[in-house]
Structure formats: structure tokens, C-alpha cells
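Translate structure to sequence.
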């Protein structure tokens, strides 16, 4: 026990939080709540114990903050991540309700071994905003999951993923509804990254209107000093007889507009970074095949519904990994914070 105590003391001593940062800490066996106002917070956890464990963290509206970390018997490790606290906890429309006040932390993994959880305000944290639809959204309730809901787990402490994706949103409604871009734009600070991925619900949007709406979003982000990044939409699980995705699967809209192609062209013309999630998710699905790729989405056997658009938790994690990899390939400044 003396050896274990010394090991734990060393972990706790490293990277101590300054006293004036007002950290709050606790130990919880399952879930815990921190009474803090809206803002960005660093969560620092010490994991481990006498027995082997595997511990992860979900926060707020089922956002994955830390994928399960395996620890051997007698091993202690430290991990940290930066997250946002807001109301509503989930999507900006509040369709799942306001959530619970404060910061909610839930332990995940097959054998959680938490030692200490510390929460510290980080008001100057750089932010990664996500402007998108249900394919990226923070779903408070099962079974749906968004890829941006899983994105925080790919970053160590530093940037806060602020996911303002909204179910049903198109480029038209995201600009028109005061709960969406009108709310997000004033929060953007110089240097913040803004991922723009809207396409799935632009089913009847003409190419000219779609281009104009994307230009408006880009101009609004730039006016705040933010860095817009175009993200093509994740594919739908729609296969043809040839084993390849159909135009519907590749997010070509009802008017025949190839929305991902327009996004790529807008990124090229505006000299913006592009994360081609359409191409990467297409390669993933077609590489796996129609049957083997279904677990990325909601299935009747596992989730009670077949849904060729919305993601399982596993699918959200896999698609978030594709976004993280693309951020590295595009050499985005936020890539330096990615976990390795």
C-alpha cells in the first residue's frame, strides 16, 4: 500500500492547479454534479487503484469526454479534457429539455476506477464550434448520437468543443432561426475554429441559395475573427446493387444538387480548410460493405429502429475519428491538441 500511495501522490502532484483558478474536486462512484455556471471547464481525472480498471467519462448531454482508459492493478494515470457547460445541455432548440443545472459527469467503461475528479474554470479556452444538423448533434436521449458528440474525447485539455448542431437544420433554417447562428455568432472569439457542416436537410435548396447561405455563414464567422472550416456531410447507409453508395447515400439532394461537391468548391474558392467527411465515410462504408457497416448506424436489432442517417454511439466515435484525422491532414491549429 505504501508503494501505491507514493505512485498516487506523484500523479496528484504533477500539473497542480493554481489556487486562484478556483478548482472544485470530488470522488464519485457513478455520476456526480458540479454546481457551476455556464462556461468552459477543464476536467482533470486521476484513474486507477489496487485492481485493474477501465474508466471513461461522459458529460452533460451524453457527450463523450474521455474514452475508457485501461489501468493495470496498482497503476494510476491522469487525463484531462475541456468541456462546455450550457443551457440547454443538448441541441440549441432545447428539444430534449434544458437538462440539469451545472456540470454533470458520468463514469463509463466496464470497470470504472476513479480516484479524483477536478473541475476548473477555463474562461479563455480556445473553442471549436460545430454548426451542423442531427448527424453531429448532442442527443440527450438514446438511441441517436452525433459525431460531434464524440469529438471532445479526441482532444486533451485545451480547446472546448462547443457543439451547436441542431436536428433538422439546413443552411436556410440555421440562418433564419434566432436560436441558431444568431446565438452562435456573438460567442465566436478571434482564433476560434468553426466547423460548418450543413447539407442533409437542404433537400429542396437550390445550388445558388445553398452557395449563398454558405457564404453568409463564412462571412459571419470571419467577421468575429473566427476561422471557418468546411466539413462535407457524413454519408447515409444507402447502397446500390453494385455495392457502392447511391446518390441519396452521397447526399445529393432532391433537386440533383451534389451538396458535398458544392461544399468542396466553396472551400476552394474561399481558400478555406476542408474536412471531407463525405469521402472518408464513403470509403469506410464501402470498404466494410453493406452488412458490416450497419453497426455504424441505428439498427432494429440493437436500437429498435433501422435508421440509415443517424449514428450509433460506435458510429459517432468512428466518424469523429475521421474528422480528427482530417483535421491533422489539413494541418488545422487545433490538431496539436489531439490525443495520440
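Result:
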Amino acid at each position: 500500500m505504501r508503494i501505491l500511495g507514493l505512485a498516487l501522490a506523484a500523479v496528484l502532484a504533477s500539473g497542480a492547479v493554481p489556487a486562484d483558478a478556483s478548482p472544485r474536486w470530488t470522488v464519485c462512484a457513478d455520476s456526480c454534479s458540479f454546481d457551476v455556471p455556464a462556461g468552459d471547464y477543464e476536467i482533470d481525472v486521476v484513474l486507477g487503484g489496487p485492481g485493474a480498471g477501465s474508466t471513461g467519462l461522459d458529460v452533460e448531454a451524453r457527450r463523450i469526454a474521455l474514452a475508457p482508459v485501461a489501468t493495470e492493478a496498482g497503476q494510476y494515470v491522469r487525463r484531462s479534457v475541456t468541456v462546455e457547460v450550457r443551457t440547454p445541455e443538448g441541441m440549441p432548440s432545447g428539444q430534449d429539455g434544458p437538462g440539469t443545472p451545472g456540470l454533470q459527469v458520468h463514469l463509463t467503461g466496464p470497470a470504472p476506477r476513479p480516484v479524483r475528479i477536478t473541475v476548473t474554470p477555463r474562461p479563455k479556452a480556445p473553442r471549436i464550434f460545430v454548426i451542423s444538423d442531427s448527424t453531429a448533434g448532442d442527443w440527450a436521449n438514446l438511441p441517436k448520437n452525433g459525431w460531434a458528440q464524440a469529438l471532445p474525447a479526441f482532444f486533451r485539455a485545451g480547446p472546448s468543443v462547443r457543439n451547436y448542431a441542431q436536428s433538422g437544420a439546413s443552411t436556410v433554417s440555421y440562418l433564419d432561426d434566432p436560436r441558431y447562428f444568431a446565438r452562435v455568432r456573438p460567442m465566436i472569439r478571434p482564433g476560434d475554429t468553426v466547423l460548418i457542416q450543413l447539407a442533409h436537410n437542404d433537400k429542396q435548396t437550390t445550388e445558388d441559395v445553398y452557395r449563398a447561405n454558405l457564404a453568409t455563414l463564412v462571412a459571419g464567422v470571419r467577421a468575429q475573427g473566427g476561422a471557418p472550416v468546411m466539413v462535407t456531410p457524413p454519408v447515409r447507409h444507402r447502397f446500390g446493387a453494385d455495392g457502392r453508395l447511391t446518390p441519396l447515400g452521397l447526399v445529393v439532394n432532391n433537386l440533383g444538387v451534389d451538396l458535398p461537391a458544392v461544399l468542396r468548391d466553396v472551400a476552394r474558392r474561399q481558400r478555406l480548410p476542408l474536412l471531407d467527411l463525405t469521402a472518408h465515410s464513403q470509403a469506410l462504408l464501402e470498404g466494410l460493405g453493406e452488412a458490416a457497416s450497419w453497426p455504424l448506424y441505428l439498427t432494429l436489432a440493437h436500437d429498435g429502429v433501422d435508421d440509415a442517417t443517424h449514428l450509433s454511439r460506435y458510429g459517432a466515435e468512428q466518424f469523429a475519428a475521421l474528422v480528427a484525422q482530417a483535421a491533422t491532414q489539413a494541418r488545422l491549429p487545433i490538431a496539436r491538441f489531439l490525443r495520440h
